[in-house]
Design brief:
Number of helices of chain B: 19
CATH superfamily of the largest domain in chain B: Periplasmic binding protein-like II
Number of strands of chain A: 0
Distance between the termini of chain B: 70 Å
Largest sheet of chain B: 6 strands, mixed
Radius of gyration of chain A: 23 Å
CATH class of chain A: Mainly Alpha
Low-confidence stretches of chain B: 23-33
Mean pLDDT of chain B: 88
Strand content of chain B: 5-15%
Oligomer: heterotrimer
Distance between the termini of chain A: 38 Å
Number of domains of chain A: 1
Low-confidence stretches of chain A: 269-277
Structural class of chain B: alpha/beta
Shape of chain B: globular
Helix content of chain B: 40-55%
CATH architecture of the largest domain in chain B: 3-Layer(aba) Sandwich
Order of helices and strands of chain A: HHHHHHHHHHHHH
CATH class of the largest domain in chain B: Alpha Beta
Shape of chain A: globular
Radius of gyration of chain B: 24 Å
CATH topology of the largest domain in chain B: D-Maltodextrin-Binding Protein, domain 2
Largest interface: A-C, 87 and 97 residues
Number of helices of chain A: 13
Chain lengths: 277, 438, 290
């Protein structure tokens, strides 16, 4: 009897989960289908497959919208930002997770506390500060702001990861009398290798889609990121759903690809923070 | 070892390329040394790659060819954060030479930071009406200096599809002349299975917003200005209450497209009208949702127009509501080359540049010398025959004009959360805010 | 140990410096600004508590608080659902890793894009209703975006529950993978049904993860929802989805009443600080970091 019961329950579960999966995929499908319709066709055919597919919307977004330039900008900016981000998260994470020093716990808490604030609260003051430091319209300024804003979460992940590293490795390195910098390259980074890919993916997703800070700090054409570029396309009157869909697909291209390629690592990433305790 | 090498290589590659990439910002300093004037313009329209940007590029080239000492650097900024950026620039005390503003309150806030233009425009001042110049002066006061050169005028009105009118048995050449005729026309259209009014109500219900602007023009006429001084009010005005009731009626009788709540005004509703999905549309006289788009779609003679709905309680009739300046250019006080900047602005506001501007974007230019007929749309000439009555929206504070009024309209007519009396009360509240801010 | 302390401070200095300059200072400056009247440029005039007085009298403020509270009511569902699904997935359903990947897709697209997509999906004549009608559930095909209470609850459901399901499943699956299998064997021996095992074994074992997720949920709804709400419904229709965070944006970047916006922000700051204290209490229990 329990077998039938189990089978029935399993069937229901498959159905429910299948529904959820379709609900997750449908928006992507809808956006894809809509992006291939011309606005004229979309007026009459909002929901079904395109009768006469066209790439006009993508042309509009990429060629006329100068998206290629912005895309390249993002491709240069994000990896550079990631280097700084990794550096900060690894060093701070290692210190909090593995080393002992006075005020360690309160400092760590304050890092987490500062993770809470919405970007809006910070935008204006950050702009003022960057202006005083002559960091407006520079990638350096934006990267520093990004690392300050996204850093705490990355640090938290690295901290909880490093906390699992066995003491022996650290102790043996110390016995050799290594200094900080050698520790960094020979110990911290190699140990963190599994986590680095996760931090990279999370950091990329955060920075790629970030808008408020980039808007304020990058004010000239040739510096803009792709997310900004797509925001510009929207203009005063919004976008047709068709062009909007094409821009959505264009914006999500890199994060989606990253996800597909590094799927295993991402899903393992949230391991830390969840397992402890 | 290998990892270190890789990281080193990556760093070596990225850092210099980043330097080169962002080195572009140093350009402007170098250019000045040449003895040429480099004029930077900030714009929230430049991002429109389809319509406005090509026009602006052409006009910029024209200006540069006519003024060899000037180089124009045109920078588009995102519309949603535009004023944030401008304020940040003002706070920093440096920025572009020319800044585009929306006419009205949004421009007045920057009066302290834009130059007075009277001496520069003296030669060609007569080409634009004093009505527009007054609007572009300090705080909208005609006695004060002009701070902005208007590039467009904007207005609102009701377009109708002549073919669909005919189909419902209505005379396509005759627009409804009063409320009874309007309602009767809607009824006939509905009976014929045609959507009477194509509406855009999702998000911000602009269809309702714009209809009220047309109504208010009829109710207050030239006294609209007094809504801003407190001499006229929404509260206690029987005609205003009646207009709200009319809007409610349009909804309850199903004349406002029931599918409107699924349709954002920009651009879906306009596209729907252009595709012939409804008989009437509360549209703009601007660079979008306007006569050019509709005539191109429905035929030069396929579109009719009337400025507003006349109803007995309103003091006036057939008033054309408009803004004397939709958008315009101001020159900032910190500009090192105000003369050159003014030359650029002039290039947009008059002459060949202005003709290009109107011809390519379809925006209505306030310049009297523009040959409307050359555009080839008889409908426009007809629309522009009448003088404008000020749009009450231009008198409100920023947050009311660009947000709260639409929310109130939604609450009163789309979600029916508030009663008509409450609607009038909050609208009056908007007027009170203007008084409080003085 | 002294050298270790010195090294540590050196290591955390980049992060702390950045946080000090770009996060802590702006937050404090914001609180300071709430006692002034400032338009984003020009002079800032000191007006003491006038902003606070105006705020507590402002109808919109209380509406935003009420809306925010309604959204917070979706946190229980946003916590239970991922836990439930993770527990079910652990039973060894075929293709569970694919499911886990697919359900993460909304997370990848990001809030802005999901907001845009949702504003199209939930229209009265949009795809969702189209499907509902097609499968015969016409009664459910409501005007999701034009009825105030409906829009708010749709927001809560989509943002508070659905969007976070992907990350939630991954999070809890990882948490559950560390549960001692012997506990389950013991439960089986006792003849416990699945449901009892779930409540008596699974849930208690991941208690800390659940608490962490609850705190994270609070933060997400209070301080990260704006991009989604902005693209989804603009705080509307009317003021239906106007939250505290949205109010800060509206006052600060539409009306440019910077001082007043900072006042609203201070309220959000206090609420977040209270949440943070709970997070601190949570961390104290977490022995690893001690």
């Amino acid at each position: 009897m329990s077998n039938r019961y189990e089978k029935a329950v399993k069937a229901v579960m498959y159905v429910v989960l299948g529904m959820f999966a379709m609900m997750a995929l449908y928006p992507l499908f809808f956006v894809l289908v809509t992006s291939l319709k011309s606005p004229a066709e979309y007026v009459n055919n909002k929901l079904l497959m395109p009768q006469s597919p066209t790439f006009r919307n993508f042309y509009h977004v990429w060629v006329k919208g100068n998206m290629l330039r912005y895309f390249l900008n993002s491709c240069i900016l994000i990896p550079t930002g990631l280097v700084v981000y990794l550096f900060v998260c690894i060093t701070a994470g290692f210190a909090f997770g593995r080393l002992r020093f006075p005020y360690r716990f309160p400092l760590f808490l304050s890092v987490l506390f500062l993770m809470i604030f919405p970007q809006m609260l910070l935008s204006i003051q950050i702009f003022q500060i960057c202006r005083k430091l002559h960091l407006v319209n520079t990638y350096l300024g934006l990267i520093l702001v990004w690392v300050a804003y996204f850093g705490p979460f990355g640090t938290y992940i690295m901290t909880t990861y490093y906390a699992t590293v066995p003491m022996e490795i650290v102790e043996s390195a110390r016995l050799d009398g290594t200094g900080v910098y050698r520790m960094l390259s020979y110990i911290m980074i190699p140990i963190a290798k599994p986590m680095i890919i996760i931090i990279v993916v999370i950091g990329t997703q955060s920075m790629w889609n970030e808008l408020p800070f980039s808007l304020l700090l990058l004010q000239t054409e040739h510096l803009r990121t792709i997310t900004q570029g797509l925001g510009m396309l929207k203009g005063q009157y919004g976008l047709d759903d068709t062009t909007l869909s094409a821009s959505i697909l264009s914006a999500s291209l890199v994060p989606l690809l990253l996800f597909i390629f590094f799927q295993r690592q991402i899903t393992m990433g949230s391991y830390s923070g969840a397992v402890k305790g | 070892m290998k990892i270190r090498m890789k990281v080193m290589c990556v760093l070596l590659l990225l850092l210099p390329s980043m330097m080169i990439w962002s080195a572009g910002t140093k350009e402007s300093a170098a250019a000045k040394a040449d003895g040429k004037a480099e004029i930077t313009i900030w714009d929230f329209k430049y991002g429109d790659v389809e319509g406005v940007q090509p026009a602006m590029k052409k006009i910029d080239d024209l200006i540069m060819s006519q003024n060899p000492g000037i180089t124009i650097k045109h920078v588009g900024q995102p519309n949603d954060n535009y004023y944030q950026l401008v304020r940040a620039a003002v706070q920093a005390g440096q920025g572009p030479d020319i800044v585009m503003f929306h006419g009205g309150v949004q421009a007045y806030e920057f009066d302290d930071y834009t130059i007075a233009m009277d001496s520069y425009i003296a030669d060609w001042r007569s080409e634009i009406s004093e009505f527009s110049w007054a609007y572009c002066s300090e705080n909208g006061d005609a006695k004060k200096p002009v701070h902005m050169v208007p590039l467009t005028t904007q207005g609102f009105g009701i377009y109708y599809n002549k073919a669909l009118f005919k189909k419902a048995g209505l005379d396509p050449e005759k627009a409804p002349s009063d409320l009874d005729e309007f309602m009767a026309a809607c009824e006939k259209l509905k009976k014929a299975g045609i959507v009477p009014i194509v509406a855009g109500l999702q998000g911000d219900p602009y269809s309702i917003d714009f209809l009220f602007r047309c109504f208010v023009a009829n109710i207050y006429g030239e006294d609209v200005k007094d809504l801003g001084t407190g001499k006229q009010n929404f509260a206690g005005n029987a005609a205003f209450k009646r207009s709200a009731e009319i809007v409610k009626e349009l909804f309850s009788k199903g004349y406002m497209d029931p599918a409107g709540t699924s349709t954002p005004y920009f651009m879906d509703a306009a596209n729907n009208f252009a595709a012939g999905k409804g008989a009437m549309f509360i549209g703009l006289l601007s660079d979008v949702c306007h006569w050019k788009v509709f005539c191109d779609a429905l035929g030069i003679d396929g579109v009719g127009y009337f400025p507003t709905i006349n109803f007995p309680q309103a003091k006036y009739k057939d008033q054309q509501v408009g803004q004397p300046a939709g958008i315009g250019y101001s020159v900032m006080k910190w500009s090192k080359n105000p003369e050159a900047a003014m030359k650029v602005v002039e290039g947009y506001a008059r002459g060949e540049g202005n003709a290009l501007w109107m011809g390519m974007t379809g925006a209505l230019s306030p310049n009297k010398n523009v040959d409307i007929k050359s555009l080839g749309y008889p409908l426009v000439a007809k629309i522009l025959e009448k003088p404008f009555v000020l749009d009450f929206n231009t008198l409100l504070l920023n947050e009311d004009a660009n947000g709260n009024f639409d929310r109130y309209c939604a609450q009163a007519f789309v979600t029916n959360e508030i009663s008509i009396d409450k609607f009038i009360a909050v609208c009056q509240g908007m007027l009170d805010n203007v008084q409080k801010a003085r | 140990m002294k050298s270790e302390a010195k090294e540590s401070y050196l290591l955390i200095m980049p992060l702390m410096l950045l946080l000090l300059v770009f996060i802590l200072y702006p937050v404090l400056a914001n609180v300071y600004l709430s006692f002034f009247k400032w338009k984003g440029m020009g002079k800032a005039t000191f007006i003491g508590l006038a902003n606070y007085q105006a705020m507590f009298r402002d109808e919109t403020f209380w509406v935003s608080i009420r809306n925010t509270l309604v959204l917070l009511l979706y946190i229980p569902m946003g916590v239970m659902l991922p836990i439930l699904i993770s527990a079910l997935l652990r039973e060894g359903l075929k293709g569970w890793s694919i499911f886990r990947a697919i359900i993460y897709i909304p997370n990848i697209l990001g809030y802005v894009i999901m907001g845009m997509i949702s504003s199209i999906m939930f229209r009265k004549l949009g795809p969702l209703n189209h499907v509902l009608v097609a499968i015969g559930l016409e009664g459910l095909a409501l005007d999701w975006l034009s009825i105030p209470k409906l829009t708010l609850n749709t927001l809560g459901l989509v943002y508070g529950v659905w969007l976070r399901l992907g990350f939630g499943c991954i999070f809890f699956l990882a948490a559950m993978s560390s549960i001692d299998e012997s506990l389950y064997d013991a439960a089986k021996i006792d003849g416990a049904l699945w449901w009892r095992t779930f409540w008596n074994v699974t849930v208690p074992s991941i208690r800390f993860s659940i608490e962490f997720w609850v705190v994270l949920s609070f933060i997400e709804i209070l301080a990260r929802a704006f991009p989604f709400i902005y693209t989804f419904s603009r705080g509307g229709p009317g003021f239906a989805t106007f939250t505290l965070e949205y109010g800060i944006y509206n006052e600060g970047f539409v009306a440019f009443n910077m001082g007043y916006a900072s006042t609203w922000a201070s309220v959000l700051f206090v609420i977040c600080a209270v949440i943070a204290c709970f997070q601190v209490a949570l961390m104290r229990k977490n022995s690893d970091v001690q």
